[in-house]
Specification:
- By secondary structure, this protein is mainly β.
- Helix content is 13%, strand content 47%.
- It contains 3 helices and 26 strands.
- The N and C termini lie far apart (78 Å).
- The model has no long low-confidence stretch (mean pLDDT 91).
């Protein structure tokens, strides 16, 4: 019986398989290198302050802040994120002196309180409402609504109620649209912790924006990679969302009646945006992380520093957008800055983990344009 001939197609198939495995390996290396570059690992942050800052001792993790409309004080949302079992709190930062003075605000003793993002809304009658994301447990998240009363210089909170929804998957940022209406960002999709790591590594766009009109919630924007800070423009016609992984500010046209959003543009940023805050003049203040890998290292080890940027987005005399830098620090002054709020000559900067905030005398003449 003659020997069986080896099919001539088998070597070709093996060569094709080797080609595709090499292609996949090269593509993976390029993708990982691009991800590391996008994270800011090779960029340096120079010290810069448009003014003068004083470090103020604060409770650990004053991650978010909101300035009162008259600039008399700011409200801080603080939670020790390296010890999440410890309850968090809201604080009133009186700005009548420099530096200011912190006063803890009482919340109901029966309320499990682990605050994260927060937002402020001023009603037509001048009443101040606070909307605060509350991580009651690893898989249960609510939004707590408070009324803030200040009499004879003494602040007091009245808890009006809690809002829950299955759409609050992993809430991070919040923007108040009324006494009980708000937009909320989920910085990741549903799933176990390992899925969140894959999401970040592959920059999967599983984040969403949820709108709650006071009666119910619905998703109004999706396809975002790590949606973080969110803010409504002063005219109420647009919503801005920060994508930390894309290092980008996303813009949406807003229907003030239905709350619906339609994406209409984006702006690349020199760092990954955290919280967004609008000041009394309509300018947008962006706290951002220039080096995502350094921030992860800082999250795991308090001794490791993480650089920070604070940017101001405004319109010039011709109506064109202008992006400027107000603050930059390699991590020695503050690590992992998360929020910046401004009123006249005061600029406050807080951080995700550190037990302090920066109280700055701000000089707009020293702002630097970002190319």
């Amino acid at each position: 019986m003659p020997p069986r001939r080896r099919s001539s197609s088998q070597p070709a198939q093996r060569r094709l398989m080797r080609f595709w495995w090499r292609f996949i390996a090269i593509a993976l290396v390029i993708y990982v290198a691009y991800t590391i570059w996008l994270s800011g690992a090779f960029r340096s942050t120079e010290p810069f302050v448009a003014g003068q800052c004083i470090a103020v001792e604060a409770p650990a993790g004053p991650e978010d802040m909101a300035m009162l409309p008259d600039g008399s004080a700011a409200i801080l949302s603080a939670q020790d994120r390296r010890n999440r079992e410890t309850p968090g709190a809201l604080w009133y930062y009186d700005l009548s002196t420099w530096p200011g003075q912190l006063v803890k605000l009482d919340t109901p003793a029966s309320l499990p309180f682990h605050p994260h993002g927060m937002a402020l809304f001023r009603g037509a009658d001048g009443q101040i409402f606070l909307h605060v994301i509350n991580h009651r447990s690893a898989d249960r998240h609510t939004v707590e609504i408070f009324a803030l009363l200040v009499r004879d210089g003494q602040p007091r909170l009245h808890h009006r109620g809690s809002v829950a929804s299955d759409l609050f998957v992993h809430p991070n940022g919040i923007a108040a649209a009324g006494p009980e209406a708000f937009y909320l960002t989920n910085d990741r999709g549903s799933g176990p912790r390992w899925m969140h790591m894959v999401e970040n590594l592959l920059q999967l766009s599983r984040s969403t924006v949820v709108y709650h009109d006071g009666r119910g919630a619905r998703i109004v924007a999706d396809d975002i990679a790590f949606a973080n800070g969110i803010e409504i423009t002063s005219d109420g016609n647009s919503v801005l969302v920060g994508s930390t992984l894309w290092r980008m500010l996303l813009s949406y046209t807003r229907d003030p009646i239905s709350g619906a959003l339609i994406r209409n543009g984006s702006l690349s940023l020199p760092a990954g945006p955290d919280n967004l805050r609008r000041d009394a003049d309509g300018n947008l203040w962006i706290a951002a992380h220039p080096n995502a890998l350094a921030f992860i290292g800082h999250a795991n080890d308090a001794e490791k520093e993480s650089p920070s940027l604070v940017l101001r987005l405004s319109r010039d005399s011709r109506g064109a957008m202008r992006l400027q830098q107000a603050f930059g620090d390699p991590g020695s002054l503050i690590s992992g800055a998360s929020t910046a709020v401004h009123y006249q000559n005061r600029l406050l900067i807080s951080a995700v983990f550190e037990p302090k905030l920066l109280d700055c005398q701000f000089d707009p003449e020293q702002l630097r344009d970002v190319e």
